[in-house]
Write a structure and sequence with these properties.
single chain; 33% helix; alpha/beta; 5 helices; Rossmann fold; 5 strands
Length: 139
């Protein structure tokens, strides 16, 4: 069984409430329950924080023991050298995900510090972005 963790950054705790026209109507916990049922061959853990240092700590704690990390660092994607350094320092592969198409949004969102140090990037497929990342670890 593959051990995968999903790590979500700032404001993703508001899924289902925040801009539902962009992010959908499901909370992340509701969505997580659906993909856990759909993919019982994966042991899925979940962590969310609005605090950059806590995200770095979780990446460091899990980045040597998990088969994969699905990371949506939210706005920290575009600002955090520290999170990028944490991803670069670990051995677990990381897939960077984004619910919205960041390239169709403000120009500052077109830059990612995570993309160069991630194994892959999935952008713009709504919550399905997480499932696509999970599939990349399971196949």
């Amino acid at each position: 069984m593959k051990k995968i963790i999903i790590i979500n950054g700032p404001n993703l705790n508001l899924l289902g409430k925040r801009e539902p026209e962009v992010y959908g109507h499901l909370t992340f916990e509701e969505y997580l329950s659906l993909i856990q049922q759909k993919y019982p061959q994966a042991e899925l853990d979940y962590y969310q924080s609005n605090i950059e240092g806590e995200l770095i700590t979780k990446i460091q704690q899990t980045g040597f023991d998990y088969d994969g990390i699905i990371l949506n660092a939210g706005a920290y994607t575009h600002t955090s050298v520290g999170i990028a350094d944490a991803v670069k320092a670990i051995t677990s592969p990381v897939i960077e995900v984004h619910i919205s198409n960041t390239f169709s949004r403000e120009s500052f969102r077109h830059q990612s510090y995570l993309s160069p140090v991630s194994s892959g990037v999935i952008i713009g497929f709504g919550l399905k972005s997480y499932e696509l990342a999970l599939l990349s670890f399971l196949t």
